[in-house]
Amino acid sequence: MVVLVTGANGQLGQSLRFISGNFAEITFYFLSSADLDITNSSAVNETFKTIKPNYCINAAAYTAVDKAESEAEKAYAVNMIGVGNLADACKESNTIMIHISTDFVFDGNKRTPYTEKDSTNPQGIYAQTKLEGERELQKTHDRYFILRTSWVYSQFGNNFMKTMLRLSQERTELNVVNDQIGTPTNAVDLAKAILQIIRSGSQEFGIYNFSNEGVASWYDFAQKIFEINHIQINLKPIPTLEFPTPAKRPSYSVLDKSKIKSVFDIDILDWETSLRQNNTI
Description:
- There is one protein chain.
- The chain has one domain (2-158, 183-214, 253-270): NAD(P)-binding Rossmann-like Domain (Rossmann fold, 3-Layer(aba) Sandwich), CATH 3.40.50.
- It is built from 9 helices and 12 strands.
- The protein has helices at residues 11-19, 41-51, 72-93, 125-140, 160-170, 187-200, 218-228, 258-264, 271-277, and strands spanning 2-6, 27-31, 55-58, 96-102, 144-149, 152-153, 173-177, 181-182, 185-186, 206-209, 216-217, 234-238.
- The strands form 4 sheets. The chain has a 6-stranded parallel β-sheet with strand order 2-1-3-4-5-10, with helices on both faces.
- Strand 1, helix 1 (11-19) and strand 2 (27-31) form a beta-alpha-beta unit.
- Helix 1 (11-19) packs across helix 6 (187-200), helix 2 runs parallel beside helix 3 and helix 5 (160-170) packs across helix 7.
- The protein starts with a strand and ends with a helix.
């Protein structure tokens, strides 16, 4: 079994590498953006001809949500054109593609967990490019798993948990938004779920939601990070209106995981439990 991982230096790519030793039956190729520019179709095609992967996990993405508002061309290049290039190569080589998408494809106006069948309505450039990437894959290739996830953090890369821990060393007080509701996702748990899908050999292709279990605000998440790490700080909840950003965030983006749990028999940890197990930089 040969698995190609794009975006190998990102949170998910590093998390996949971290647990890859537990999957001896798989030969992994971890390629960073420096190793493979997915926006370059000829480079993608050559890579597939050389590696001949059974699966391609696309963990490459333009994820600077706010910056995307002023760098739309870059965001589209990676999140849509790059995905299309990978989809073309996967189709040509009969490779199954596992593509990581986002809760941002929804507008956040629901107040019950989003299912895979709910209507999408992206609210910013990043969100739109991620949805367009999904569509590029769907129109090109029929052997795919699209995993929509949310609030990803880990001991790798840049993320909310690491930002909170860093800021706690620099400040005595922090304001954190408490009216955006979702679920933190440990990238290692996401990586495990992806490899469980591969190991299953399932042909139940389509869109799946994955995050950890439970519900939280960003304030709740920050509070738990500090509690677990025994950090004393004056943490204040604030509304989104007091923390304006170039890109609009969904006010509610809890994901319903019933489908992925049922199809792949995946046990998903509660976000607090997972955070306790993986809270260090």
